[in-house]
Amino acid sequence: MEKSLNFVLIGRSGSGKGTQAKLLMKEFQNLYYISTGDLFRNLAKANSDMAEKVKKLLEEGGLPPDDLATSLWIHEISHNVKKDQGILADGFPRRVAEAENLDQFLEFLERKEQTFFLLIDISNEEAYNRLTKRRICEKCGRLIPWVGAFKELKVCDKCGGELLTRPDDTHEAINNRLNFYEENVSRVVEYYEKQDRLKRINGEQPIEDVFKEILSAIK
């Protein structure tokens, strides 16, 4: 049986990783989507000491320790990804230690050779502009990016709900996220580039063109 492809999306906050993830899921149809951000946001809703600390970190634009992030996505993959499914990772690894852990885990699963590492590359200035202007639907929770035709939306295009600023998209939190990228995630990019395993995608194009470039890079 032909082995499923796996995709790891890397990029600054606001680069469109989530949008491209949805397009990849439509294209390949048998991918299990994992977002570290979603895992942390779900954890923050729990009634526990850890949940309170994670919630505070998210509100401030910080990130929990390496080991916690690694534990969350390893647990998610181990308990849910079937043998015939591909993995679609959005937003991790964010530190070199996490990248090394992911490599070891993919090796154990015999998936390392069929995994594509895709950098959705946008400038720091573009990321800040998008993050300060993107919105979320109050009704259905749909995230509306500040790109292309989405800029013209007055209400949610799926349910008609009111569009609001995301609670954790404060100027301080955004700056913290972007600074974290420069100090940590950029080293992950270098880690994969040195091994010639990274596909760099121009993320400042229209959404459809970004996806075309992704397909071209993996084929």
- Please indicate the percent range of residues in DSSP E strands (runs of 2 or more): 15-25%
CATH class of the largest domain: Alpha Beta
The secondary-structure element order is EHEHHHEHEHEEEHEH
How many H/I helical runs?
8
Judging by the overall fold, what is the CATH architecture of the largest domain? 3-Layer(aba) Sandwich
Largest sheet features: 5 strands, parallel
Helical content class: 40-55%
Which structural class fits the helix and strand makeup? Answer: alpha/beta
Separation of termini?
19 Å
Overall body shape: globular
Number of domains: 2
What is the arithmetic mean of pLDDT? 91
Strand order of the largest sheet: 2-3-1-4-8
Rg over alpha carbons:
17 Å
Describe this structure as you would to a colleague.
The protein has eight helices and eight strands. By secondary structure, it is an alpha/beta fold. The strands form two sheets. Strands 2-3-1-4-8 form a five-stranded parallel beta sheet, with helices on both faces. β5 and β6 form a beta hairpin. The longest helix has 24 residues, at 171-194. The radius of gyration is 17 Å and the shape is globular. It starts with 5 loop residues before the first strand and ends with a helix.
Give descriptors for this structure.
219 residues; alpha/beta; five-stranded parallel beta sheet; 8 helices
In short:
With 219 residues, this protein is of the alpha/beta class. It contains 8 helices and 8 strands, in the order βαβαααβαβαβββαβα.
